[in-house]
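1st attempt posting a full record on here, be nice pls
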Amino acid sequence: MAVVDSLSPEQKTELILDTDSGALEDEAFLREVLTSLIESPDDEEFEHFLIAFAKANKQKNITLIKNPGVRDTILNLTLTALAPEFEEFEPEDFKMLFQDHLAPVLASLHPGSLAVIPNNISCHSYRAILTGLGQSVESLPLHLSDSLRSSIKSLKERFTRCSLPDSFMCKKTPVNENLICAAVNRSHVQETLSVYNSSEALCRFTLTEHACSSATHLTASNLVTLMNCTLESNRTYPTEVWKLLFQKASPELDKALETFATMAPGNSKPSLSHALEALGEVRIANFSQTQLQSDDFVSSWFQTNIRPFLASTTPNFLFCLSSKNFSCETYQTVIKAFSSQRASMDREQQQAVYTHFIRPFLSRNDSSDPGCVSFNRGSKEWLQGNFGNFSGFAKLRDLQHLNANFSSAELLPLLTPTQVAELTLSSGALNDTDHIDRVFERLQEGDALENVEEFLTQLTANGKGPDFQPVVRDRVMNRTFSIISPNFTHFMEEDWFVWFHKILVPVLPSFSPMMIKSATANISCKNFQVVVSGMSNAAPAMSKGQRKGIGKALQGYLVKSASVINKPVCRHGIQSDAEWLEAYLGAFSQHVTYSDLKAFNLSAMAVVDSLSPEQKTELILDTDSGALEDEAFLREVLTSLIESPDDEEFEHFLIAFAKANKQKNITLIKNPGVRDTILNLTLTALAPEFEEFDPEDFKMLFQDHLAPVLASLHPGSLAVIPNNISCHSYRAILTGLGQSVESLPLHLSDSLRSSIKSLKERFTRCSLPDSFMCKKTPVDENLICAAVNRSHVQETLSVYNSSEALCRFTLTEHACSSATHLTASNLVTLMNCTLESNRTYPTEVWKLLFQKASPELDKALETFATMAPGNSKPSLSHALEALGEVRIANFSQTQLQSDDFVSSWFQTNIRPFLASTTPNFLFCLSSKNFSCETYQTVIKAFSSQRASMDREQQQAVYTHFIRPFLSRNDSSDPGCVSFNRGSKEWLQGNFGNFSGFATLQDLQALNSNISTVEVAYLLTVSQLAQLAATPSHLKTKMDVTNIMKVINPVNFGAFFDIVSPAIETHPTNFTVEVKSAFLQEVYDRGNLSSPAISDTEFLLWLRRLSPLLVNLSPSLLLSTISTSELNQFLSRPNVIDNESDICVIFNNYNNTAAFLETVCHSTD
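the predicted structure (as tokens):
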């Protein structure tokens, strides 16, 4: 005692186990030793002690600490000390503790001892503990194992999550009489009964005492008495005790069982489970093959002798039984015996009969008739004979596996709802309404509500819903509803939840509006909420029409219950209008119109996030909401759409918004702030998607969705449009903007017109040639003048009638006035100051002005022509378009044929405007019935203004006026060919200064008699090259000379870049004479020998002229060399090796005399 604190863990172990120390008999001393270890500053000291203690016990073969107090102390102090560490224990730690360290003291364990084990230990840890306790039970004397057995039972009940299926192994129970009888006075029973041999005396002793006696008193009668009083006492004895008893009473056992069977009830009793296990090992295990095949023998045992025990059957007994070699006949006799006791079994035991006896036996392949298939006729007899009352526990696939000929359709009336569900899932019945009808005929037998519940529950047992065809699902729902609807009046809140959140889930998408109306007819508001939440879960699988119908039905309930639903009991747990909407309409709230929702006095702001895109459209356009005047509120509504997790929600809103605007004939959102908000938020939200937009998407957006807000568009708004969109997409946008310009008041269209201009400048790659169609400009005075005070001009000028006052007003204001002040003089003043201001007005404004000033217009134009410059001005383009529609379009046939009239108009009245011509004006002009003479007068007018036009306008004069006019076939002189004498006069008269824009093919098509040689000097280099490149057109050297003489040598490169490829493509259509003539021209005038020509440029010319060098004659080649160059060439060493070479040169050189003269002079 004095030195205990100084001892090591190993020494303390020796001290405790030392018989001289008496520690194993001194509870107080032992407590002090263990406390010193537990409270040691060294945390590992107690662990070292446990290891040393276990090791020493093994060495000394100590399996049990016999002193109960000492044993209790060691166990309790150890568990208490280690309890804080159990949370961190691994399975290996628990194994060491309960299978090793604590083994000698586990006899003291009781269920309460295990309270220190945490509930969250792993199942591996649980099994390590359980194994340790089981090992101790097997090694302990029976009287010391009772508490341990209770602890095992308690542990299993606590850790049901870790329970494993009973093993499919026939386990035998070992009987150790010494352990069983260790605490029993073996002679006491015999001694007592020799004096008092009565039932009362017999029952005074325990079953263990009888088993441990000599058992000579255990007659059949006494054995029956003993079993009866044991049954009445409800005391449970382990299997090994029963087995020992039955072994000792074996001679009397059969007779006793036969008698007991007539007296015992058939109820399941835990005490009988162990007795049955013992009978299985003592009797059934020893049945001979002959006995197992004898129906009389098997019947006497299972339907008589052990019948009272069968309701207490265990998985182990059943599995051992399945290994017996019954015949199919005797097996079915056993099944009848179990079936007769089924009502007394709990469900777990009933299941065990199937899983541990029926299925294993029928699955055996070591019999002459596996599955006993041949023994019975037909599926029905096979099922009833081999499964008895337990067929409901078999999976359908098990039945089909055990009997390949099993006809599930034939046996539908015999199948359980669970099996019917399996059949439905596996047989293709999900697509078969006829099969569903047969299924429900089966389900309506017996308790239809219970059957349907089991059937539908099983359909989703695998965690996945069945994939019904809609028509089949509808049939299932209809048949189910007919069964469950009569029970709605008895449903409690839990019932509503179970059915609408669990059981009906697979078929709820087929729940109809009429069903909802029926189900909720007399339902409380709380139960209504349960139904709504269940239906909401199914909503995604419903059609839109169905969701709408259900929403209408739910709304009907709410209207009917209006006086109740807002009472406190119906708003319990509902904190806001949004929560109210979710509780009472759920997912169907979005399928009720916003106008219907308004009836419930909900705050629009509170429920905005719960509304569908269509409802938000209604909300925005609802005059009562004021949304179209409240920029902040509108921004919140749109933001809720844009930021919705559903990417398609904003798109649906745009579609609904456009549709509603059309229905309400809303073409313009009038509030500028609201309009700006809608446009800007929409473009910003969609900008990231524009890269993926198709032309159709842009068309829908700019021609439909955004139409009412495009008045807010400005050039900067379009910055979000990617530069790489297709030209089809560009044109879709442009068309939308153009349509809006036409429909908007003029004062609102300026920014949009600027946007169109900006877009065109940005996408020049997508510009198309102006269409060949004479377009008229519609004039809607109401749109033009919507923002104009029409009387203001007249009122002001009636007081201040001066040029300054006149120019103070815009052209639009003048056009929108009564225009009585627009004299010719005032009109000239107005045109001049408009021109000076450089302000541009649309064609429709000019047209309205000219229409109103029509009486004074001609005189004003005549005066203006004497004052205005001839420069091109964008502002005059629109004026010219207007003049074309107001005046020229109305010229009579006589006027168009009058040269004086046409001359006065085109060379005087509209001359200042002609430099600002447009393709549309020109094409409209080409349709007028000018004579050839008046047409040429017009050409002269345009030619006089050519210098003031840009190249695009010059080109347009040809493409949109000259060529269309001359191409017309409705005149007496098409192309005005007959009007002029000769090609020169025809070209100059009909093309003026614009002939250079025509291709040679155009000239030849317009005048098949044109002499291109005659007009060569009037043609451009390009036209001449086209002429020269025409195969077989040039035939002689003179033809080449006539063309080349009008071409400046500086243009030779451009000329031959066109001609040489043509010669290379069609070499046979160009004679050697023609090719030589071209080379001669280059040689004579091309100046290629000039030192200024670089090697690079010379090489370019060699490539350019290569098609002309093919088949070139020696004489032509030598003729291109000057006498001095030839002299230099021949003077070089090793150039001429023999006389024949010199002969070749001078036989082909055409300037020999000059060469010899040059040589002679140089020699002198």
